[in-house]
Amino acid sequence: MPFGSRVVRLGLVATAAVATCLLGALPAAAQSADGPAVVHLPVIHDAGPGPTAPCIADIEVQSLGCEPSKALLLLWGEPGACPPDCAGPLRVVCSGLLKPGATWRFPVHEIPPAAQTGTVFGLSARRLFALDVAPDPVLADAVTADYVCQVLFFSVVGNCHGYRRFKQAIDDGRRWSGVDLASAASAPIAVELRRSCTAPPPSEVEVVAAYSGIAVADLGVHDAVFGGHAHDLALLQVDADGMTSRVHMLNAGAECTSVSLWLTRADQCGRARICTVDTLAPGEAAAVELSDCIGGGWTGSGWLRSTQPLAVVVDTIGPALLMSYRAEASGLRYVVEGEEIAQRTTVLHAPVAHSEDGGWSTGIQVRNRSANRNARVRLTFLDPSGRARASLVDWICPRGSRSFFLPMVADLPLGWRGAVRVESEPVGLPAAPSQPAAEIIAVARSVRYADIARSHPVQAHSYHLLDGRATFDPDIAMLPEAICPGPGCIGLIAAPHVRKPGDVGTQVELVVVNVVSTPGVTDFAIYLFDENGPIDVLCQRLPERQSSALDLDRYAFLEPGFVGSAVISAVAWRHGKAEGAPDAAPSPLGLAAVVLAHAGGALGEHVPGDRSASRIGSPIAGSLPACGGAWPACPSLAP
Fold it and tell me: Measured between alpha carbons, how far is residue 462 from residues 211, 313, 423, 424, 455 in Å?
């Protein structure tokens, strides 16, 4: 825990009081839901041709609303043809009641092994008459989510045209089967998927990977100039260090789409080469094995172009390893009357990274998104206390990528662990006008080796770095007593799955970082839930750039084997203005989080197989209205 921080744990003296305060920290659907509550899962069971059997998938949905809701999971099998000869969804699965902050785990036996991809829809658990959306007076007393689920079961399963009509209606907020889907949508939901697979012979050990579901806000925007969507993949490999990438791409739109995948080798500025062109019906997903496109010993990056929005997850598969990360949607980027119009991502954050810590080492792969401009990239390595331990500057050519391995960085001691800030800087000379900073994306990959020569990897996990534009924007205007109402300030983070394992030598951590770089502090609450509601509240303070790890193994009040969820909510913050910000600008706010699970705790015990997995905490932008009329239970720790 960083110097200067302190923790206050509020026991459940009165569960109802904590629940009331919790509701004050969660967003109301009508005020903060950015579009429908829809989350996409590009891969469920598939882990490439290596595993000997389909993976076991755990899918958990967390509600972030003020009222109880339910979740509907639509599943698809192998991709087929575009309409009219399309297959449609394989199955629909409906959840039980989701209480605010709590999580519903879909039973494994309800997810057929043939399921390859899925989409989760959050719907209200109120009665149809309460929402004034009843299609028929006889049905007025029906639960909204139950009614929609029943109609989907009979009209959409095996019927891709029925799904297209439903998807278009929910995207547009129109009526469908007599129900106003705009009124029936729940508040934002967060979804997490974890896969447990069996590696191929000769190891045949268990390998685990996880990723956070891809929400509507993460699908990017349609570029009217170029007429489509684009997604960037920061790290791709083909038989490099024994690892090969597999790209899973899901059509998140309501129409059939064509998809093309382009590849560029790392550290080179040569031409990109096309790997594949495919077509996908709405809701379906396809997997691309990069070894079918390019020879071995290759490391690089790539991008996808499509006519419909995509949800994309990249698996990296080794002989006894499996890790996943999410691809990033591109923003708009073109010039109008000599002025560049762009949505640039120039600051990225990795909440946790290792430098030869217990056999672990981390590499940061950075990709330059610009097609015509060099990127000047600065990596700053931060201690948990927020102090800059080291800094590294390098250049990346247009659409190129480069790996930065922490063990190779000077001044990082053996066993160092902290956060990494990656920044793309403006380019120019003192006598010449500078060019805007190039847009970048990045992926952090941590591997644990069993030997000093780093020739025998035994565990690995990866996650995409968090967008600095989404986690911190000093130009957002907000009242001092309100949490950022705009789409560029993160004060609420969802973690659908946290646990305290009973296995000896297994470590699970929730790492939180204050990404604001100007001096000040942010006070936040971590709410812990089991499946039935809140059980505890942890209060903490983080000064600028500091990070803190919540290790559930160290909390004796949680029984071994505890499984639940968490919500991180800012309570109060006081930071100086960013350079160039107007005097009237409010105090900036920015939190980011990653959940880590890996074998080998404080004593470094070895557990066979790759039990490691990492996933980002799902950031929720927007205001946090007091649903129950109160703020969170944690008091402000600020002086």
Answer: 9, 11, 20, 21, 19
Q: Output DSSP code: residue 475.
A: T
509, containing H or E segment: strand 506-514
Mind listing the pLDDT tens digit for each residue in 522-565? 888 888 888 887 888 888 899 999 999 988 877 777 888 788 89
pTM: 0.88
Sign of CA dihedral 478, 484, 486, 490: positive
Separation CA 614–CA 545 (nearest Å): 21
- For residue 385, what are the CA distances in angstroms to 154, 541, 544, 578, 596? 56, 12, 9, 20, 20
Residues of the chain with pLDDT under 70: 1-35, 47, 49-53, 131-138, 225, 331-344, 410, 429-433, 468-489, 502-506, 578-585, 599-607, 621-633, 635-639
- Locate 445 and state its tokens: 């990959």
Residue type, 400: G
CB 565 within 8 A of CB 428: no
- Name the helix (H) or strand (E) containing 521: strand 520-530
Q: What are phi and psi of 176, to 5 degrees?
A: -145, 125
C-alpha dihedral sign at 81, 84, 86, 89: positive
C-beta of residue 545 within 8 angstroms of C-beta of residue 382 = yes
